[in-house]
Amino acid sequence: MTTKQNPPREPAAEEARLRAALTPQINHRLRSARIVAGRAVVVAEAGDLSAEARDALEAEIRTALQTVAGIGEVRVALTGERRRTRLIAVGSGKGGVGKSTLTTNLAVALAKMGRKVGVIDGDIYGPSQPKLLGTEGQKPKVEDDKLVPLQSAFGVKVLSMGHIVAPGKALAWRGPMTGKALSQLIDAVWDDTDILLIDLPPGTGDVQLSMLSAHRPDGAVLVSTPQDLALIDAARAGQLFDQGNVPIIGLVENMAGYCCPECGHISDPFGSGGVEKFAAALEIPFLGRVPLTLETRLSGDAGTPPAAGESEAAAPFVAIAERLARWLDTGSVQG
Ligand SMILES: Nc1ncnc2c1ncn2[C@@H]1O[C@H](COP(=O)(O)OP(=O)(O)OP(=O)(O)O)[C@@H](O)[C@H]1O
Ligand SMILES: [Mg+2]
Prior knowledge:
Layout (H helix, E strand, L loop, with lengths): L10 H10 L3 H6 E7 L2 E7 L5 H16 L6 E7 L6 E6 L7 H14 L4 E5 L7 H4 L8 E3 L2 E3 L1 E2 L4 E5 L14 H12 L8 E5 L6 H9 L4 E6 L3 H16 L4 E12 L6 E2 L6 H8 L4 E7 L1 H9 L12 H16 L5
Parallel strand pairs: 2-3, 4-10, 4-11, 5-9, 5-10, 11-12, 12-14
Antiparallel strand pairs: 1-2, 6-7, 8-9, 12-13
Helix pairs in contact: 4-11, 6-7
Bound molecules: adenosine-5'-triphosphate and magnesium ion (MG).
């Protein structure tokens, strides 16, 4: 019951305030969090939990939310639904800007943060993920007509058409077949995977359209290099997601600032900072900048993602993964 004395409600700000008091694991289960007449009303998914674990979850939510200023009472409703796997698309308009590299390294960084992560290689014609995650030549098993994702050495599960069809064979496929192929990868046995990153092919073609109609992602990360041409294409990809009602989580600038391994001089072959300005103009969050490094290129080819190690090349991916995790937990990339 709302009374006249209550200030005007701001549901998004209220939800963010409540979510901020909860751990990422609990946030992942939240369906909704509202403040109604000084009471926190929370709905969380607990279909996969035992009776004791449900009680523990409820108690943890209660204890955490009682500390939030202005909350007199906490009401918790647990649903029988299982935790949902969140789908995040990684796209760009232009080819070769680093979508696949970013997807792999974000996935590895998120896994190191304790998230359960899977990667789907949506590039049916030119798969990259078998190489990037070091699973080339492996074949997924099939259980009850569903593919079982492969386990990479980096705590990230992965599925790609490159694991299923011989190189070059998918080239003859046309629109509906590519949609079906993507569905098979998405409807695989992802089990308790929390976050599925989809590495999209360049452009705004069949795979993107079938994904938007059949498997609308929860959000999209856009990647661009700093040149104008790449930015124009990124804007086009952004429009596609907007039209499909997919929230754009933010833009990443890749390949800005080359640090010469010989002399340490930093040059900007593609310019630098263009993506951040562009993001600001479009009012899209800027997620971070990944410099052009020889290590990133070489470790991509070797199937040992930099984010799995502790080198300087890992740091930008970790920072972007942290922003992505924040978005997943709170709906905002800002801390
Ligand atoms: N920050 C970086 N530093 C050095 N090399 C990079 C970086 N990002 C990507 N690369 C290299 O650039 C090439 C293209 O990257 P990648 O395959 O990730 O791009 P893509 O956008 O997925 O391409 P496509 O559109 O063909 O799918 C690869 O050789 C990769 O190793
Ligand atoms: Mg790619």
